[in-house]
């Protein structure tokens, strides 16, 4: 049995506003579900979910999104759309000669609009990458957990991708910033075979830690780097 990556959940002080921003940027519909407001993905594009929180955003976060561009005009259109929807430019120390554009959404989450010609993200679709802070160990864990092959494993950096292609999930290797409190971004999974208990046991055997269970039957675990993630009942 394997887990299916349903979405990445973002805690948001205003989930509806955050969902509208990303729906407009990614051209997706908003669906209500028990975990918040969902922008469903598919076999090749990861979904995004926005859940309510009262906590303020504290940087750095361990995940940020990379959007791809087919041409310079395409990159400029994406940036213009993000700004029109309420996003803003963000200075994270990037150099002027770097081709990507760093922005923040309405909740302050950073994301990058990548310049055209990026070979690593070629063919990955518009939501090309979940760029994560993390060790090689956690990349190997998620490869086994999802059944997604490693498509990069070099210099402590790893990346996995669905066998169907699409969005890559990558970890930048050490040094990894110390974890402070519960992550505001979390992977949201479901057991592919429907047996949640057996899948919890398998994930624990791979190196996860069980943290607890919610009233809706969702089990929360942590990966080997301590990042929380949720396993749904079905």
Alpha carbon gap, first and last residue: 13 Å
- Which parts are unreliable, with pLDDT below 50 for 5 consecutive residues or more? none
| Strand residues, percent | 25-35%
Query: What fold name stands as the CATH topology of one domain?
Result: 2,3-Dihydroxybiphenyl 1,2-Dioxygenase, domain 1
**Total DSSP helices:** 4
Supply the CATH architecture of one domain: Roll
Largest sheet: 8 strands, mixed
Number of strands: 16
| Percent in helix | 10-25%
Question: Can you list the strand order of the major beta sheet?
Answer: 2-3-4-1-13-16-15-14
Q: How does the overall form come out from the CA principal axes?
A: globular
Quaternary organisation of the protein chains:
single chain
Structure description:
By secondary structure, this protein is of the alpha+beta class. 38% of the residues are buried. The protein has a domain at 14-32 and 58-171: 2,3-Dihydroxybiphenyl 1,2-Dioxygenase, domain 1 (Roll), CATH 3.10.180. The strands form two sheets. An eight-stranded mixed beta sheet has the order 2-3-4-1-13-16-15-14. Strands 6-7-8-5-9-12-11-10 form an eight-stranded mixed beta sheet, covered by helices on one side. It has four helices and 16 strands. It is globular and about 50 Å long.
């Amino acid at each position: 049995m394997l887990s299916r990556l349903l979405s990445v959940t973002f805690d948001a002080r205003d989930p509806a506003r955050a969902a509208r921003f990303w729906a407009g940027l990614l051209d997706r519909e908003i669906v209500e579900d028990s975990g918040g407001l969902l922008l469903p993905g598919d076999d090749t594009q990861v979904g995004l979910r926005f859940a309510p929180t009262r906590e303020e955003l504290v940087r750095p976060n361990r995940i940020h999104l990379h959007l791809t561009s087919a041409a310079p005009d395409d990159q400029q259109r994406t940036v213009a759309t993000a700004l029109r929807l309420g996003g803003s430019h963000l200075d994270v120390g990037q150099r002027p000669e770097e081709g990507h554009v760093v922005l923040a959404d309405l909740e302050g989450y950073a994301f990058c609009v990548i310049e055209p010609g990026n070979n690593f993200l070629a063919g990955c679709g518009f939501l090309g990458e979940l760029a994560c802070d993390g060790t090689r160990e956690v990349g190997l864990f998620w490869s086994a957990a999802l059944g997604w092959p490693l498509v990069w494993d070099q210099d402590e950096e790893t990346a996995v991708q669905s066998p169907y292609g699409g969005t890559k999930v990558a970890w930048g290797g050490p040094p990894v910033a110390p974890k402070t409190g519960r992550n505001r971004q979390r992977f949201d999974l479901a057991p592919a075979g429907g047996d949640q208990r057996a899948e919890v046991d398998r994930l624990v055997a791979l190196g996860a830690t069980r943290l607890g269970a919610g009233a809706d039957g969702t089990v929360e675990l942590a990966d080997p780097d301590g990042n929380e993630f949720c396993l749904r009942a079905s």
